[in-house]
Write a structure and sequence with these properties.
With 206 residues, the protein is α+β, with helices and mostly antiparallel strands. It contains 7 helices and 7 strands.
């Protein structure tokens, strides 16, 4: 029986999936207020316009009073047509739980991102996959005092969203990526005798 089965009521943390010889250099979460606000605002303008548009037609139908037995069609139609509103409500109602399940970690071997609502999904990014590291601080991010760090990969991307100390973390992440990618490209005996590459331990301080 695995440790996850023995402690099935205990949430699995990132530290629980660390492999032998792997060390966490940094771990953190999004700023809660910023994360919940951004999730709440996702699709809000679209949902509001959609709701006003459909609400106007529903009100006109009710005022006219000439729908008759057509309600059996109209109710399911608008229930389906209001899908953007239901998606926005889902974002609103699940934002806090998604924040609880969102964690970020930087180790000496990889980047780990956990996310999810009902369950928890783990995304692993190995340093050799990373093409660029980019920091984005938009207008709302400035107001909320957060920033987003994007890892552009060969296929797709991975994100650290709503990071409170983004200006401090960003250059450190860049350094770790560069150091470990360099170690992969020029390992072992290609290094000076005083540094045998993979036989050394990466000791970046955060």
């Amino acid at each position: 029986m695995s440790k996850y089965e023995k402690n099935s009521t205990k949430p699995v943390e990132i530290k629980d999936i660390i492999v032998e010889g792997e060390k966490i250099l940094w771990s953190g979460k999004p700023k809660k207020s910023a994360f919940v606000f951004n999730k709440t605002m996702t699709m809000f303008p679209v949902a509001l316009i959609w709701l006003l548009f459909d609400g106007f037609f529903i009100a006109m139908l009710i005022i006219s009073g000439d729908v008759g037995p057509g309600w059996w069609f109209i109710i399911p139609f608008f229930a389906l047509h209001l899908m953007p509103v239901w998606i926005w409500l889902s974002n609103l109602l699940t934002a806090n739980k998604r924040w609880q399940n969102t964690r970020y970690a930087l180790t000496n071997k990889r980047i780990i991102i956990s996310s999810g609502f009902i369950g928890v999904d783990y995304q692993t990014v190995f340093y050799k996959e990373i093409k660029h590291v980019r920091l984005n601080v938009g207008f709302l991010d400035k107001l909320l005092k957060v920033g987003d760090i994007f890892f552009e990969l060969e296929n797709g991307s991975a994100d650290f969203l709503d990071i409170e100390d983004c200006y401090e973390l960003y250059p450190k992440l860049q350094k770790v990526v560069l150091d470990i990618q360099t170690d992969i490209e020029f390992p072992n005996k290609l290094r000076p005798k005083t540094n045998d590459g993979f036989e050394t331990e990466y000791t970046a301080k955060f």
